[in-house]
Design brief:
There is one protein chain. The chain has about 220 residues and is mostly helical. The protein has one domain. It contains five helices and five strands; from the N terminus they run βββααααββα. A hairpin with a 2-residue loop joins β1 and β2. α2 runs antiparallel to α5. The chain is elongated, with a radius of gyration of 18 Å. The N and C termini lie far apart (about 35 Å).
């Protein structure tokens, strides 16, 4: 959840960076309420593309899964765990942006941002599953694959932050740690470096507890 201050207003920009692309957010101008009329048409491009890709890859992976019900449950677990993990992170990093407030509006927008985060985390899983030709590739994850996820997430977050900052979509507070050389906030970069990996681990852990050998 990211925003900037104006005089007597808080301009909010939500549905934020992703591991793959950059900007998708709600642009709330000064003195306007958060509603669909304020949603820029161009801001819908990335999430729409992401959803289309998710549907295509989901159907493809479901077709090649030995146990479709278990695969469906894994997707559900990834969505839920990713949403919860990112929501906690979004709330925790509120003070790192100018104009933050722990009120219902900000918390609700954190929830919207977390939904977008969860969608991108699921898309990332599907991309790796397609490359590895294994719907349950997380079962065979190793240090190399984990590092690849972390690097891709970090690079994606940096590129997205650079784009949003160049467009003046939000402003960091003085408490935000800055990544040297690229001059973007450390918090959003760390978020997309580690949240996907953690979500996958947790999802497969709970799946394995209930389905065991069926996760092939």
């Amino acid at each position: 959840m990211l925003w900037r201050n104006g005089t007597n207003d808080v301009a909010m920009d939500v549905i934020r960076r992703s591991a793959f692309s950059g900007a998708h957010y709600l642009d709330c101008k000064a003195d306007k309420e958060v509603n669909m009329e304020n949603l820029k048409a161009t801001a819908l491009i990335v999430p729409v593309i992401a959803l289309v890709l998710i549907i295509i890859l989901y159907l493809h992976l479901l077709k090649h899964s030995n146990n479709r019900n278990v695969f469906k449950r894994l997707c559900y677990l990834i969505i839920v765990s990713s949403f919860l993990l990112n929501f906690v992170w979004e709330i925790a990093q509120l003070p790192l942006y100018q104009g933050y407030a722990f009120d219902a509006k900000h918390i609700a927008l954190c929830g919207l941002a977390s939904v977008a985060d969860a969608i991108m985390v699921l898309l990332l899983y599907f991309v790796f599953a397609t490359l590895y030709k294994q719907p349950f590739w997380i079962k065979h994850i190793n240090i190399q694959r984990s590092l690849m996820l972390i690097v891709i997430g970090g690079i994606g977050a940096i590129l997205a932050e650079l784009k949003h900052l160049s467009q003046d979509n939000w402003v960091y507070s003085s408490s935000m740690p800055i990544v040297p050389f690229v001059n973007v906030g450390l918090s959003p970069v760390l978020q997309f470096m580690f949240m996907p990996v953690l979500s996958y681990y947790l999802s497969f852990y709970f799946l394995k507890k209930n389905y065991g050998s069926q996760t092939n």
